[in-house]
Amino acid sequence: MIKIKKVVSLIEDNIGSLEKDEKDFLENLEDKGWISKDRICLRAIVIKWLLLHSEEFEYFKNKVFYVNNVSITGQLDIEYLKVDFPLVFIDCHFESGINLMISTIKSLFLLTCEVEKLINLTGARIDGQFNCRGTLINGSAIDDENGDKYSVIADNLIVTGNVFFNLSDKKPFVAKEEVSINGIQISGTLDCSGSFFEKGINAQSAQIKQSVFMRDGFKASGEIDLLGAYIKGSLDCGSGIFNNPNGIAIKGSRMMVDGTVFFDAYKDDENTVGKNIRIDGIVDFKGAEITKSFKLKSVEKTDNYKLNLTNAFIHTLEDENTGWPPKGNLILDGFIFENISNESPRKHEERLKWLGLQKKETEFTPQPYRQLANVLDNLGLEKDAREIRIAMNNEIRNKSQKWKQKFWLGFSGMLIGYGYKPFKVLKFALVIWLLGTLFYIAGDEYKLIQPPSKFAYKNYSDSCKLDVLEPFDYYPKFNPLVYSLDVFLPIVNLHQEENWRPVSNKKDSQFYEIFNIKGGGLLNLWMYFQILSGWFLTTMLVGGISGLVRDK
Questions:
Q1: Domain end call among 399, 415, 438
Q2: For the packed helices 521-546 and 480-488, what is the interaxial angle rounded to 10 degrees?
Q3: What is the count of structural domains for the chain?
Q4: 111, 70 contact by CB (below 8 A)
């Protein structure tokens, strides 16, 4: 093994003469790495040569490459680097970028550094942490032919520990251009708390074995793209700021979260509540799957805040109206959930307001109503579930272009509440019963209701008028109230209808002169109507109770 102090001449033989700062750096690196109060200037090629030949030097065995307060000129371009010790840069300034494509590193620390161009870790592997706390990365294009600018491009990077793009002593991580980590595999957490991503994050198909934190001062002015990502822990956006007013603020289409998604005010360990999460753009969770809760609570409302839950699945919806988007900015078609938290609105009045936030320009679909009603049923809130289903049928009736469907829904809704309130029919039955009673009282007064058999009279003769005929004393007395009920009910026999009938051939009554109908003809017509309506309303009642005519 070669000692680090003997390396100066060896490096000069390979890359040319060294500057004074570079010699000082190499000569003092052996003990604890380079630590200096005064910033020195160091060429990237020196660091590159050291790292590529690290196996030859005793210093690097079981140690850390530690550099503090250094200005590094030129691009640190070390593709395919393979070292089994951590690289630690603290308070360093990189005049250009860092290229560690397809490299293997123990850990990479860039703490409170400033990087003028992009950091490229495409296809690399970090067997430990990737820590960028408090670092500023200005970013640049990958090359002259590719005009897209990035601060970090780490597609398909593998990290066996945690990734930190967050605060360091209140100094935030700042990425001036897009951070691209498509297909990244992180065995720990991805912590972006308190950071600022000016052009967003592209993390399509990312695989994160623990949680993702975009909370407590997190700010993004571009799209956060989690399309097809898998997060084994939670996605915590508490008190974050997501600004992309002309597009998608958070894209979680086909994302899977094995924990909870937090859209809420952040609470620290002492339960101090932070500001509301602010969303100025679209939250696209189309086809997403959240196996625990979606906490949608304290959201600062903006006109551009839209929430798309098309075909998403969430186990427990834990929301409040303070987290709902403005009217017309909610899409729930195909949204499936299994539970509503105890802390969330469950009453049908509040949930109907939630459903009413849906976008009206699209064609009406009953699925969100059915889904909500099924969940309320499972929670034992049958009354609220019924009200949701009734509201669904009202919407179908109002939006329907088919006159038959419109007529039937209007009719069944009025009579039995589409089958969910079958006893509404009793109101109509009561009106018909009492109205019939009034008719039969008048008919009895004008002697238009008589026993149907001549053997019922004790003074019957062919020459007698109906006015003077008297039934036997033992003959059942006429009772207009019971008679109306007997005529109306199709099943019950109260023995009034069979013993008394309207007389249709009586011509000498005032009843006849007023209505111009022979004798009790009007009463006969009413009786027929009452019989038919009795059968019909009873059928509707039975059908509603049994569910046979329930409009689902």
A1: 399
A2: 60
A3: 4
A4: no
Find out whether 194 and 217 touch, Cβ atoms under 8 Å: yes
Residues composing the chain: 552
- Tokens 């509540």 correspond to what residue? 273
- Give the domain extent around 166: 77-210
Residue 309, amino acid: L
pLDDT tens for each residue of 100-144: 999 999 999 999 999 999 999 999 999 999 999 999 999 888 765
What backbone phi and psi angles, to 5 degrees, belong to 313?
Answer: -125, 130
DSSP codes of every residue in 160-221: SS-EE-S-BTTBPPEESSEEE-TT-EESS-EE-TT-EETT-EE-TT-EESS-EE--SS-EES
| Two structure tokens written together for 75 | 């691009």
Rounded to whole angstroms, the Cα distance separating 283 from 290 reads 15
pLDDT higher than threshold 60 for residue 512: no
Give the list of residues 6+ apart from residue 307 with CB closer than 8 angstroms, or none.
282, 283, 285, 296, 324, 325, 329, 330, 331
Residue 299 and residue 242 share a domain: yes
Whether 93 and 61 share a structural domain: no
Computed on alpha carbons and rounded to an integer, the radius of gyration of the chain in Å comes to 41
Which of 73, 99, 122 corresponds to the end of one domain?
A: 73
347 and 274 in a common domain: yes
Residues 250 and 392 in one domain: yes
Query: What DSSP string describes 7-37?
Result: HHHHHHHHH-PPPHHHHHHHHT-TTT-B--S
Please check whether residue 313 is in contact with residue 336, taking contact to mean a CB–CB distance below 8 angstroms: yes
For residue 534, give both structure tokens.
């009795």
Tokens of 443: 């008919």
pTM to 2 decimals?
Answer: 0.83
**Does residue 274 sit within a domain?**
yes
Please name which of 387, 307, 293 lies closest in space to residue 340, comparing C-alpha atoms.
293
DSSP letters of 440-475?
HHHHHHTT-EE-SSGGGBSS--TT--TTT--B-TTS
Whole-number average pLDDT of the chain? 87
The one-letter code for the residue type at 399 is: K
